[in-house]
Amino acid sequence: MLYANIILDIKNAQVDRIFDYEIPASLASSIQIGVRVIVPFGFKNTRTEGYVLGITDNTDIPLEKIKPILDVLDYGTPLFSIEMIQLAQWMKETYFCTLNQCLQTIMPAGIKTKNVWSALLHTPLPNRSRTKQEELILHFLQQQGGSAYVSKLQKILPEDDKTTLNSLVQHGDIHLIQETSQKEHSRKVLFAKLSEDIQAINLLQEKLKQKPHLFAQYKVLQYLSDCKEAPLKQIQEALEISDSPIRSLAKQNAVVLYQKEVLRDVFDTSSLTETLPFSPTPEQHHALEQIKAEWKKTDKKPILLHGITGSGKTEVYLQMTEEVLRYGKQAIILVPEIALTSMIVKHFVSRFKDKVSVTHSRMTYGERLDQWKKAKNNEISIMIGPRSALFTPFSNLGIVIIDEEHETSYRSDTTPKYDAKEVAEKLCQLTDSLLVLGSATPDIPTYHRAMQGEIKLLSMKHRTNHSTLPQMTIVDMRQELEKGNLSIFSKELYDGIKENLKAKQQTILFLNRRGYSSFVSCRKCGHVMTCDNCSVSYTYHANSQELICHYCGKRIANPSVCPACGSKYIKYFGIGTQKIEEETKRLFPQAVVLRMDMDTTTKKNSHQQILQHFASGKADILIGTQMIAKGHDFPNVTLVGIMAADISLNIGSYTASEINYQLITQAAGRAGRGNLSGKVVIQTYHPEHYSIVLAAEQNYHGFYEQECKFLRSMEYPPFGHVFSILLTSAEENDVIHSAEVLADIIKKQNLAYPSIVMLGPSPAAISKLKNEYRWNILLKGKNKQELKQLALKSIEEFKKTRPKVQWNLTLNPR
């Protein structure tokens, strides 16, 4: 007897463990590791979906308690490969979540089952008198072949009829069974083909040829003789006819009509011209040779490709992917945002045509499911998309490339809170693939690993078209204020835009705002209110008129004058893209202005439409947030204005300086990418800050060394670890009370870990989200294992208090 080790698709963490089920002889040939099955679970033997993670010939469960598997959902090919199961198990241990949550993350969107009740007609029917409603139901069942979903029968009956179905069951006319319905968002299309009676078709063709009014039917038969099968719409368009001649042939049994699943194409490749590989620059050639050599090794090291903006990293990705495909392998290309997907897809599709597919959240469930199936069926070799593309079911993966690896969007903010870079590295270990991380501004922990020799570092320091980096100008907005300029535009930026419009060149105005940032600063001297415990800026809370540190919870009153210089020009610093758009249109009424932010990109394909409009030269100025700061190549953009560098510098996070450096460098990289030279204007109240000065110099290594001094002194990553415990509840009092209870538990547990520091509890940076109040506790220390032990032990004790809150654990949030 064989048994299957099954994890159940139940959200409750109490049942997130392996259950053994008997494999019936009738299903033995269909049960494989990775398939979905239906099993009975619990006292009521509820039909429940589960996933087979192992097969064995022995079990510790008493045989009389073992239940059999009821059905298999995946015939032929398992839903999960062995590597994906191993990846899910690793994610469970790494990201403090259930195995089921990890498997749900890996599963394709659009595949789900549900339990439904069906009614079966009893034959022969008992001889008895029946009501009109009962006869109506029985007649419907007979028309449906003897069975139908109960939900359909209920629609036939009046809404207030609660007795008819019960009566039919009690009298034995019908019986009800529970079934599993698998809803796939697949696309079915009506096809036509010739029937198998060739002789009859030939005779019919001869008859039709003689009858001019039936000549359309003759053309249909001729068409299907050539192409074997075709969608009805295709036949109609090709022959310029309605569907009547086709359906008439079907009634004569000359043509067979049938539904067929057709996988959707998510982009049109017809307008793209095929491109050939460019002759690489010496730096590109060296990088490619090093990547190829590493790829051929048995023990592969991840590679960090550190190339300045415009150095040609995309061409390296393309040529390395071509090398991988030449050996019959497959490639996953991750991009941080949907806005960047269309740009990189264009490059890859132009080179590799229909070998490429794409997936992202703006696509429908059905569209994403179709791309998943194409990968599963080996119909494509390259998948491009955000972090979810990492779970593409390729059978022969060769390389994973993560572009703009520094982006925080590679971290999931919902459970499981995984880091796509870490998951990609594990996936590459499991599949003997190579991981390539690319960025002009790598995140500090990644670059630190390269400096320590844990990963291989490759550098590209020159632009491919021999163009120079843009001229960078730092404007001190304190001096603008002293000169009487109260506008959000400095004179330098105003004049630059004016000149650009005159020269018919384009401008990008970038607001380096990332998420929510509300800080208090002095417009005269630039001083920002900063917590002396944590070296991060306070966040302003309008409802309480307080400044709060979201790390340790310290609160101070909102000052009326600057504590540094005594100026009254101290206030909440706030500026948005809409305000910039209004001012731009007022100052430059002749300019065509586009805005790209969360508000203007809610509709499907809106990112692509805005970018195409700007790329075609139909607009003079593009205003936006980080969406426009990276990855885009607009040859006619010669001026970039960074409106307020101080915003990302004061986001209340230990990574603020790093994020500021990254955003300025990435935004500046949009200028002067063509034959025209570029200029960047950086507006700031902190012109002396090292992240701004070194970004203007494009000196990444200098910034890395300076930032490491701060991180090392405060024991922040990569020189220590931060463990976040986020508590959420719809009731504010519950979450505050629970945070205090958990903090007390941690203090008691912390006696065994004296090197660990607790910060908080305090309101989270976003203190209320989707009607949930959020509080945070941070644990900081050098030993990652001790941090995890303290957090998990504390949570176990916390559970015993029966808290009315949810909690999430995250290691090293950024």
Beta-strand residue fraction: 15-25%
The stretches of 5 or more residues where confidence is low (pLDDT under 50) are none
Look at the structure and name the CATH superfamily of the largest domain: P-loop containing nucleotide triphosphate hydrolases
CATH topology label of the largest domain: Rossmann fold
What is the terminal separation in angstroms?
Answer: 51 Å
Total count of strands: 33
Strand order of the largest sheet: 14-15-13-16-17-12-18
Write down the Rg: 32 Å
The rough form would be described as: globular
Q: Tell me about the biggest sheet?
A: 7 strands, parallel
SS-based class: alpha/beta
The CATH class label of the largest domain is Alpha Beta
Estimate percent helicity: 25-40%
**Count of distinct structural domains:** 7
Rounded mean pLDDT is 89
Secondary-structure arrangement, i.e. CATH architecture of the largest domain? 3-Layer(aba) Sandwich
Please report the number of helical segments.
25
Structure explained in plain terms:
- This protein is 34% helix and 23% strand.
- The chain is an alpha/beta fold and 814 residues long.
- The chain is built from 25 helices and 33 strands.
- It folds into seven domains: 3-109, GIY-YIG endonuclease; 114-184, Arc Repressor Mutant, subunit A, CATH 1.10.10; 195-261, no CATH class; 282-460, 3-Layer(aba) Sandwich (Rossmann fold), CATH 3.40.50; 471-516 and 575-712, 3-Layer(aba) Sandwich (Rossmann fold), CATH 3.40.50; 519-573, no CATH class; 721-811, Alpha-Beta Plaits, CATH 3.30.70.
- A hairpin with a 6-residue loop joins strand 23 and strand 24.
